[in-house]
UniProtKB/TrEMBL annotation:
Domain of life of the native organism: Bacteria
Residue span of region Disordered: 1-35
The protein's name: DNA primase/helicase
Lineage: Bacteria, Pseudomonadati, Pseudomonadota, Alphaproteobacteria, Rhodospirillales
Organism listed in the record: Thalassospira xiamenensis
Compositionally biased spans, kind Acidic residues: 12-22
Amino acid sequence: MKKKLDAANENDAFDPIDDTDADTPFIDPDTDNASMLADAGPCPVQCLGHNDGRFYFVTPSGQLRDLVAKSLGNRQEITALMEQKAKWAGRAFPKFNKDGDYVGPDYPRTGEWLIMECAKKGIFSPDKVRGLGVWKDVRGGLIVHCGDKLMLSSGAKSIDAGAALDDGWVYPAQPPLPAQLRPAMFEPANTAQMKMVYDHIKSWNFLEPSGAQICLGIMGLICVCGALDRRPTLWLTGDAGMGKTELLKLLTQPIGGLDYTLRSSDASAAWARAALKGAARPIFLDEMEPGPRAAAAMELARLGFSSDQAGVGRASADQKAILQRITAQFVFGSILHPEPKPQDQTRIHFVEMTRLTPNAQQIAEFEAREAAIRDLGPRIWSRMILGYSRFLSNMLVYRGVLGASSYSRRMTDKFAPVLAAVETLLHDEVIDPAVAADQLSEWGLDTPEVNDSESDECLNHLMSCQVDTWRGGDRPTVGQMIEDILASMNGAVHEYDDGKRMAERILPAYGLRLAKDNDNAPGEFKWLLVANKHTALAKLFRDTRWQGGVHRQALSRIPGAINGDKSGRFGGGISRFVKIPLDILKGGGQDGDP
């Protein structure tokens, strides 16, 4: 049986693969199979296990293969499985004619032995396969899958792809990355070179002061995306001619450039899933203008954000469950971007670029830096790999500083990895918390950006819906009607009909009602009651993500809201309701003022 290779990076030496202690093979009582196998030497095929009638192997070239039992007695299948070492089957399981002459391998016996070896290994999970990219091993180091070789964090050790490691994952061989594009583990980029890269990124013109930092941080995350717990997305926007595509090209430099990057200007979400093939790689999607395709890609990036999100599950034609893991660093480019949902606002960095008119000297400096950076990619890659432990320490510092700045946990997950990658690339020491706090202030990140929550968006939708009641030549929105009712109750002059009629007849007809703390006592309205189920109200939420009564869940999360257990009458119908404090509606200004 092959000994599993130890995946520890710098601490333990790797033992050579040793098959001399193979388990007892399939025994035919009429032949001496054990001695035959000993003479044949170790099997060139690595048996991984079995699952649902399929048997899994790693071929001599390191590729993953799975076969059904009936195929394992077939000459062509066995030969293809053994590849250039197919003669092993003839030495291990020779077949003789009645005169005792050797006539070739006994393929049925070879197949039976392979089946038994897989049975000894137990159930194999086809999902436990990793392709190209940088992955975290069981001891916290990194494994760099280059296609034909697995490089470890120190760069001092490498093994053939397909070898069994002790982390429970299989790393099958894939088309190799050219040697000159692999991480330059013995010559990482230094701080002066990284400052030049940083200055080069800053030569683009960003609307926000943090734009250059975010882009440099994403470059660093691209280098180790398979080892990350959180992978924030970058979405570059700006008018045509702003240099978005050139900047996207620069961000690919560390991992081999555009020719070795998954990229497209007209890609579907299904393409992105299929193109990964179990790899941990960046995906660059340019020209992703608002529309169904961009919205689907944004949802895919949402799945790729977190390592603890399983991926996309599908069923095959024979009703087998298929899980497509999304381990990717997404980078988008477009003139405009789709309006993000609240959950996307805490995962995606939207960086807007503006026009810059450089002079002759700036152009000359840009071209000089570009030429110098062209061959620096593998060294940037190795700097991030070798600095991975420093990256983790930097991220702990930034998480603490962002938390002290009132960042939510999800917003911290969005910013901390990016800022930690910037610091890891630019400096050789872990950042001091006081310096990190000053950086946030300098880059305009000391105050968290305010995004609408799901409850905000749901309430805004409801308040902006028009009702089928004409007043003064137009149809008021729900919010306008509530304003007029409150104004009339306070004796203010307004342009619509009597507020009492609107409060008692029109609003309830839409599943809405204004209420006081005590309906039988005098005083102002304090609450907006929203029915859980009401036909007219359901029409206002039709074709939104809050249809089908889901609005109740969103609105009940508004601060101060009460998800009532009592029933009320709404336009003749009776329903339970959510009580929303009217102070929430009174907080805004007029005509877009804050």
